[in-house]
Write a structure and sequence with these properties.
Length: 355
């Protein structure tokens, strides 16, 4: 029987509640599909920091490196200085584990979830590939004359040929396995001149994939097209910051942050799976947050570790619950958090027999 070591950081706000349901689903999938999960739970997040001054100690970080995958609930809490815990936990893992791809699937399971008029499930099915270790997130910033009227702040966007190329190549490989076989580059090369490295690298890599159609949109136009004609997108690749922004927008097309999941990947190495949503402190401890995004992150994690059927079953369960109307939606308060977990557990076995 396959056994997986999973690190779990439930984190802040609604993180622990949605993580609890995600873990129930992971265990249930293990029972149905015959694999074992050994969970290593870490208490890191704002509460832990305020109590102990510790963010992500080295010993724990070393342990996590040896796991098969990591699950993260949510990070962010106004009681801690802005960005401190985010940088100490999420960004630390993304950078130090070199999780260079942030894969964010956007797939509409039921028309009723989409805020756009006249769009169907066939129109919204895209994979957004966000470069995950460079760009504006690389951390190169500084201040001078701090606190004075003449203060200057800078932050440098960083793009290495290596980093850009591996994100683009990953996107073409993804597209090869999809029916439409199309990759759209989203950048702002007309204003951010450094994005020329994306333009050139994209063109060079594209030559190696003659079966893949290519397209391009500046990021402002891409935001417009995603609302106007989301069906134009299949695989889209973009920079770290633009990927952060366009995936919040794109998540709304499939029903909102309540269902959007992501994988922070370094193919072949330990990778990190999380819902795209934040910690929503105002909903914490109320049992009203939707765990659907976390459950979708479990589906991505299962796919990544090689449990393809279990992954498909978890995704299909959520899709069927939505289509049948049993799951009324994935917004806050539409169902109790645990009720969604119960529904998925109740349905998983039936779906498993079909996938
Ligand atoms: C995301 C989040 C993070 C990011 C924050 C929490 C630092 O918005 O994963 O999209 O900006 O990458
Ligand atoms: Mg974001």
């Amino acid at each position: 029987m396959n056994e997986y070591n999973i690190a779990v950081v439930a984190g802040d706000g609604i993180g622990p509640e949605v993580t609890k349901e995600a873990m129930r689903v992971l265990d249930a999938a293990g029972e149905v599909f015959g694999f074992k999960v050994k969970r290593n739970e870490y208490p890191f997040g704002t509460d832990h920091y305020l109590k102990t001054d510790e963010i992500f100690p080295d010993a724990a970080f070393e342990e996590v490196k040896g796991m098969d995958a990591i699950f993260l609930g949510a990070i962010g809490d106004p009681r801690a200085p802005v960005g401190l815990i985010e940088y100490g936990i999420i960004a630390k893992m993304r950078f130090e584990l070199d999780l260079y791809i942030n894969l964010r699937p956007i797939k509409l399971f039921d028309e009723r979830l989409c805020p756009l008029k006249g769009k169907t499930v066939d129109d919204i099915n895209m994979l957004i590939v966000r470069e995950n270790t460079e760009g504006a997130y690389a951390g190169m910033h500084g201040f001078c004359h701090k606190g004075q009227a003449s203060e200057i702040a800078t932050q440098t966007m960083v793009y290495s040929r290596f980093g850009v190329e591996r994100a683009i190549r990953f996107s073409f490989e993804l597209a090869m396995n999809r029916p439409r076989k199309q990759v759209t580059l989203i950048d702002k090369a007309n204003a951010v001149r450094a994005h020329d490295i994306w333009t050139r690298t994209f063109a060079e890599v594209a030559r190696e994939y003659p079966d893949v159609k290519t397209d391009h949109a500046y990021v402002d136009a891409a935001c417009m097209w995603m609302i106007k004609n989301p069906e134009w997108f299949d695989v889209a690749v973009t920079t770290n910051l633009f990927g952060d922004i366009v995936t919040d927008l794109a998540a709304m097309l499939q029903g909102g942050m309540g269902i959007a999941a992501s994988g922070n990947l370094h193919p072949g190495r330990v990778s990190l799976f999380e819902p795209i949503h934040g910690s929503a402190p105002k909903y914490a401890n109320k049992g009203v947050a939707s765990p659907a995004a976390s459950i979708m992150a479990i589906s991505m994690m299962l796919d990544y570790v090689g449990e393809k059927q279990a992954s498909k079953a978890v995704e299909t369960t959520i899709a069927e619950l939505l289509r049948s109307g049993r799951l009324k939606g994935v917004g806050t308060g539409q169902h109790a958090t645990s009720e969604v977990g119960d529904m998925v557990l109740g349905e998983l076995k039936n779906v498993a027999a079909k996938v």
